[in-house]
Amino acid sequence: MAADWLGSLVSINCGPTLGVYQGEVSSVDQSSQTISLRQPFHNGIKCPVPEVTFSAIDIKELKILDIKNGNARNSSSVSTKVSSAPVAVPKGDPRSVEKVNSPQHCSKSYGERHLDVPGQPKGFRRRHNSWSSSSRGANQVTPKKNGVKNGQMKHRDDECFGDGMDDGLDTDFDFEGNLALFDKAAVFSEIDISERRNGARSRGTPQEQTPSRYRHDENILEAKPIVYRQITVPQPGAKEYCTDSGLVVPSISYELHKRLLTVAERHGLSLERRLEMTGVCASQMALTLLGGPNRFTPKNLHQRPTVALLCGPHVQGAQGISCGRHLSNHEVEVILFLPNFVKMLDSVTSELTLFNKTGGKQVSSIKDLPDTPVDLIINCLDCHENTFLMDQPWYRAAADWANQNRAPVLSLDPPVSGQGQAVEAKWSLSLCLPLPLAEGAGRVYLCDIGVPRQVFQEVGIKYHSPFGCKFVIPLHSA
User: Fold this and answer.
1) Mean of the per-residue pLDDT values for the chain?
2) pLDDT over 50 at 70, yes or no
3) For residues 178-210, b (16+ Cβ closer than 10 Å) or e, as one string?
4) Are 9 and 66 in contact (CB under 8 A)?
5) Separation between Cα atoms, residue 373 and residue 401, nearest integer Å
6) Which terminal residue of the chain, N or C, has fewer Cβ atoms less than 10 Å from its own Cβ?
7) Phi/psi of residue 322, each to 5°?
8) Nearest to 309, CA basis, from 358, 368, 377
9) Quick one: CA dihedral 73, 75, 78, 80, positive or negative?
10) How far apart are CA 197 and CA 189, in angstroms?
């Protein structure tokens, strides 16, 4: 009787702990109540051992998948828990190993997805491939939908979700070995060949290399070589400066600077125009030094910056008063120091009249300047010609106050080196072209006051504007 089942394909369910085994019956021992399977599969995965033996007490359910002698027997009882017909189990139960091919299910069954498993019996594959609703016997019932709640299964189907694991995942990926397979020289050689075919230059020195990609602000047309010395003067000064873009800006002597402004005034660039341009450029720089848009917001009206403006009775002082007027119009608290003189220049008087209309504060004594540090000091005490002012008491007192105050100093149109500068500055703003300034001038900036190019040519200067899109640019010592 037991020998009749040898070679048959069976499915043994040993419960949720041990899982489901499938294979070909190799031996049945009725005395010891054991059954052995050769070429076994555990939960759809081939077992590493050639044969597995089961005891009757471990078997929860046994199904005959294929009978070797072709009899019409549906099942055989090995233990008291195995019935003569297949037991209907819930669809989501882990013990269910048969997948039904019906119009409501997928076109491939579980057995079809494992047809290519090496070493699997051909009869077992045929049985699963041909399993359908038409091949079920009369005693077989349709599994009921049980264990489904809100479209999700209560128990995970190990046969479905536990399949497809590759044993090769346990081995580490060999990065060095795979990297050695990449031949860089061959790849770059292919790139060079393709570039030559497309008419592009091969890789060479950085000067010869043509970029394959351009930024949105770059010109794809071949441009002329950049000339960094675009300004030449007949008598270069003692220093040379350069801009952020590398353009060379030479310094000029005060005599050439004075002659340039005289020619510009003869062509219509009057002193009043120069004062206005200088005041606008200086105030823009001062507003940036005070914090720019981060400080000048409607939320900071209660924290208005304070600027002390030290001016003398000369053109440089008039430039400072013009700067103070623009700063006061931009909600800056300006304190203007200007000593009392019986007679002043007309430019100083007119600028002072406009400044007083802004609500700024004017003082003539050092005692009226604030004792606490201010946000910025603008120094316009020095003059290019009247050096005797340095011996005046008001000049020395103003210079001492500026040096004792811990606020940074911006010098406006400072004199050349050698004339002396009592106030040490952190920044200096030169006009048109820089003068050779002393080391105490700090970092040098240059502003554009609107002198035309032909005016430069009349005094012997070959000029190309270094300002670009700005009116105030920083200069660096070359």
Assistant:
1) 78
2) no
3) eeeeeeeeeeeeeeeeeeeeeeeeeeeeeeeee
4) yes
5) 10
6) N
7) -60, -40
8) 377
9) negative
10) 12
At 91-136, the pLDDT tens digits run: 444 444 343 333 333 334 444 444 444 444 444 444 444 333 334 4
- With a CB cutoff of 8 Å and minimum separation 6, the contacts of 419 are 382, 384, 387
User: According to the model, what pLDDT value does residue 210 have?
Assistant: 56
CB 229 within 8 A of CB 248: yes
User: What average pLDDT does this structure show over 61-87?
Assistant: 53
3-state secondary structure of 284: helix
- DSSP state letters, 367-380: GGS-SS--SEEEEE
Walk me through the domains of the chain, giving residue ranges and CATH numbers. 8-64 (2.30.30.100), 240-477 (3.40.50.10260)
CA-based nearest residue to 58, from 86, 90, 36, 27: 36
Cα angle 364-365-371, degrees, rounded to a multiple of 5:
125
The Cα 58–Cα 34 span in angstroms is 10
pLDDT digits (tens, 9 = 90+) for 424-457: 899 999 999 999 888 888 999 999 999 999 999 9
Q: Give the contacts of 402 (CB within 8 A, at least 6 positions apart).
A: 308, 310, 377, 379, 409, 423
Distances from the Cα of 455 to the Cα of 13, 117, 298, 433, angstroms: 104, 93, 43, 13
What angle (nearest 5°) sits at the alpha carbon of residue 26, between those of residues 22 and 27?
115
Q: Closest by alpha carbon to 464, among 230, 252, 251, 235?
A: 230
First to last CA, the chain: 108
> Which residues, in sequence order, are bridge partners of residue 307?
334, 376
What pairs with residue 34 in β-bridges?
Answer: 29, 55
Lowest mean pLDDT across 52-61, 172-181, 232-241, 405-414: 172-181
- Give mean pLDDT, residues 367-379: 93
Q: Which two tokens stand for residue 111?
A: 């057995």
Q: What is the pTM of this model?
A: 0.55
CA geometry: angle at 199 spanning 196 and 205, to 5°? 65
Name the token pair of 213. 């990609």
The residues, ordered by sequence, that sit 6+ positions from 126 with a Cβ below 8 Å of its Cβ are: 66
DSSP string, 374-440: -SEEEEE---SS-GGGGGSHHHHHHHHHHHHS-S-EEEESPPPTTS--SS--SEEEEESS-----GG
pLDDT at 348 over 50: yes
Structure confidence at residue 178 (pLDDT): 80
